[in-house]
């Protein structure tokens, strides 16, 4: 179905959080432009993009905010977090230290927007790099997910286009549920 001529009723701001080079820009690029870049071009500052999505019969305009993961670009974080409706917390399945950094991102979300105020989805990206993966689901389930509850977890590959659309659908759905627009299941 083509929604181009319809007006979205809801406009939701999604923020994509995580350390440098975990694949934030790649996930958004795959979702919005359906392409992938092997070259690492680090994000400087903020870079919002748009895509419409249909969830449970509701047409929603997602405004997706990308941000620099590297700590030296901290100055735009106020604009980044402001009035966000939902967040992706992205780590790199091949670099466990990127998971540790998410505690800090989650803290910033809670401090600026209120504790557990917006839905978060935990994303383990680069699932295609099978031989280099250093984090398994058992570890996450025991040691990590309990610290981030309530949260859902998905493994993605921006490269292979695995679980990318599902990620944005799930987050949109969680936001609409939280806002009472669709029913909890
Ligand atoms: N194999 C593989 N490589 C990926 C994937 N996603 C991203 N990459 C690569 O990882 C590197 C970093 O990706 P970016 O999307 O630029 O990372 P970022 O999180 O936006 O980084 P900053 O902007 O510095 O915060 C690039 O070389 C990408 O090609 C993936 O799913 N699989
Ligand atoms: Mg980036």
Write up this protein.
By secondary structure, the protein is of the alpha/beta class. It has a single domain (10-178), classed as P-loop containing nucleotide triphosphate hydrolases (Rossmann fold), CATH 3.40.50. The chain is built from five helices and six strands. It has helices spanning 24-33, 77-81, 97-113, 137-148, 164-178; strands spanning 10-17, 46-55, 58-67, 86-92, 120-125, 152-156. Strands 2-3-1-4-5-6 form a six-stranded mixed β-sheet, with helices on both faces. The longest helix is centred in the middle third of the chain and has 17 residues, at 97-113. The chain is globular, with a radius of gyration of 16 Å. The two termini are 25 Å apart. The site of magnesium ion has 5 residues, from helix 1.
CATH homologous superfamily heading = P-loop containing nucleotide triphosphate hydrolases
CATH topology: Rossmann fold
Shape: globular
How many domains in all? 1
What would you say the CATH architecture is?
A: 3-Layer(aba) Sandwich
Radius of gyration from CA coordinates: 16 Å
Number of helical regions = 5
Q: Any low-confidence stretches, pLDDT <50, length ≥5?
A: none
Sketch the major β-sheet.
6 strands, mixed
Report the span from N to C terminus: 25 Å
Descriptive key words:
185 residues, alpha/beta, Rossmann fold, six-stranded mixed β-sheet, binds guanosine-5'-triphosphate, binds magnesium ion
SSE layout and pairing:
Blueprint: E1 10-17, H1 24-33, E2 46-55, E3 58-67, H2 77-81, E4 86-92, H3 97-113, E5 120-125, H4 137-148, E6 152-156, H5 164-178
Parallel strand pairs: 1-3, 1-4, 4-5, 5-6
Antiparallel strand pairs: 2-3
